[in-house]
Design a protein that fits this description.
Radius of gyration of chain A: 19 Å
Order of helices and strands of chain A: HHHHEEEEEH
Largest interface: A-B, 70 and 70 residues
Strand order of the largest sheet of chain A: 4-3-5
Helix content of chain A: 40-55%
Structural class of chain A: alpha+beta
Largest sheet of chain A: 3 strands, mixed
Shape of chain A: globular
Oligomer: homodimer
Number of helices of chain A: 5
Chain lengths: 151, 151
DNA sequence: TCCTAAGTAATAATGATTACTATTTAAATT
DNA sequence: AATTTAAATAGTAATCATTATTACTTAGGA
């Protein structure tokens, strides 16, 4: 698809999402979303900040962080990694998935049934030598669902 | 399986792995690995540090971080999240996997063939309401493999 | 055009992680 | 068993990513 057209459409989608959630459409939000959407490099905060600063010289780092969090909440972007605020470790090497609650950051193990296995995509070997596979399923855990219902 | 036996076996495995890689078997390494291996909670660094300190009062935070990195290198443990040193973002909502190079931290998109799809495990819904799924394939990318060959 | 809560800039603070250096120790060698 | 030595550690300082605070600005509805 035409990239410019694609970007235009995605920005319309962003505006729509803001309206639905009662969030304001600010130039900063559009600029920051635009930087993430146009890149295929999975940019980090610093990269986004530098790029936006070119057009908007006194944007602050704080705004970039806050805006990225908002865009995540709007389901317009997501993080490739660093879901959790700090590193967490696992010594269980048997193949299993993780359910990560986006509200309370709890991590649950999802063990596979005896007949199940984790399936690699056909193109997986294209980019290098695979060591392991890590499947994160993100959502709201039962405990938080219950808590939210009560409020 | 008997948990104590399991832990004993895993610690033997750790010792073996250290010998193979020419790394020393230190009490700190065993204690820190033991804490991760015995827990089902995917503990964070602070939790591990506090637990190890009970038996080894003057272990340092630095040692915990260094040791966890070593254990990762030995393939005895892995991180549930926070592979990358900083957060990175993606605005592409079409289902695809990510190949993350553990050497250079580069992230590559693995797009699915038209007939492929990401398969959820049967038990996935057990823990809560799913929002999305994030598949990280970890390994060494072609660029790094090439670089390593030349040295 | 005015009003007001949401959003922002500038800066300070926090919290996680890494680096440095003197000291200790695992384990190979004698 | 004693010696040796490079690897690992403790203690502390420094760095880096991220979040909080506060006063100011602005989007967008009345």
């Amino acid at each position: 698809m035409n990239k410019e057209l694609y970007l235009k459409e995605r920005i319309e989608e962003l505006k729509e999402a803001c309206h639905i959630k009662g969030m304001r459409v600010t130039p900063q939000r559009i600029a920051i979303f635009n930087e993430v959407a146009k890149s295929c490099q999975h940019p980090d905060v610093e990269t986004i900040y530098e790029a936006v600063k070119d057009k908007m010289p006194n944007v602050s780092m704080d705004t970039v962080y806050r805006t990225l969090a908002s865009l995540e909440e709007l389901d317009m972007i997501f993080r490739v990694d660093n879901q959790l605020p700090k590193a967490r470790f696992d010594a269980d090497k048997t193949p299993h998935h993780h359910f990560i609650c986006t509200q309370c950051n709890e991590v649950y193990d999802i063990f596979l049934e005896p007949d199940e296995e984790i399936i690699l995509p056909k193109n997986a070997n294209k980019y290098g030598k695979i060591k392991d596979i890590n499947v994160q399923i993100r959502g709201i855990c039962n405990k938080c669902l219950e808590k939210n219902r009560k409020q």
